[in-house]
């Protein structure tokens, strides 16, 4: 029996706090808050949840938390908005460079991609 919340199967052999973090947009603190507000012990494993508890969690998440596709589309919209207004962060997104003040002379290979070797100019002989 797999527990499915908003289209994602969460593992049943893990504790509730950890299992909810498998949903995009839910971290450890938010999962603790969700379980506390629903009234489920955070150390209780998912396989021991009753159908009523699962439905409470689904209802709470669908009403109060943005997750998965809705959250991803909102993030993409925010990035597009920054690019359209021409802010500094938007231009860094457009160029594929780091956004938050990191140095780019030596590092930031994750953001820039593989090295693109540029050949040196030939010295002119007289």
Automatic annotation (TrEMBL):
| InterPro entries in the record | Rbsml_uS13_C (IPR027437), Ribosomal_uS13 (IPR001892), Ribosomal_uS13-like_H2TH (IPR010979), Ribosomal_uS13_bac-type (IPR019980)
Mind telling me which Pfam families this protein's record contains?
Ribosomal_S13 (PF00416)
Q: Sorted alphabetically, which Gene3D superfamilies does this protein's record hold? A: 1.10.8.50, 30s ribosomal protein s13, domain 2
Q: Which GO terms describe its molecular function?
A: rRNA binding; structural constituent of ribosome
Q: Which UniProt keywords apply?
A: Ribonucleoprotein, Ribosomal protein, RNA-binding, rRNA-binding
> What does UniProt give as GO cellular component?
cytosol; small ribosomal subunit
Q: Which GO BP terms, alphabetically? A: translation
Task: Region Disordered: list its residue ranges.
Answer: 95-126
Say if the entry is tagged with keyword Repeat. no
Isomerase as UniProt keyword: no
Xref: NCBIfam families: uS13_bact
Q: Which family does it belong to?
A: Belongs to the universal ribosomal protein uS13 family.
Name by which UniProt lists this protein? Small ribosomal subunit protein uS13
Look up and give the organism this protein is from: Blattabacterium sp. (Beybienkoa kurandanensis)
């Amino acid at each position: 029996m797999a527990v499915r919340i908003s289209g994602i199967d969460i593992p049943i052999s893990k504790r509730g706090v950890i299992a909810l973090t498998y949903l995009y947009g839910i971290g450890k603190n938010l999962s603790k808050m969700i379980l506390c507000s629903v009234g489920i012990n955070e150390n209780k494993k998912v396989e021991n949840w009753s159908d009523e508890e699962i439905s409470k969690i689904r209802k709470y998440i669908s009403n109060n938390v943005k997750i998965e596709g809705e959250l991803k589309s909102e993030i993409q919209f925010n990035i597009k908005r920054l690019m359209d207004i021409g802010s500094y962060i938007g231009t860094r997104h457009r160029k594929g460079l780091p956004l938050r003040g990191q140095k780019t002379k030596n590092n930031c290979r994750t953001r820039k991609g593989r090295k693109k070797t540029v050949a040196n100019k030939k010295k002119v002989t007289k």
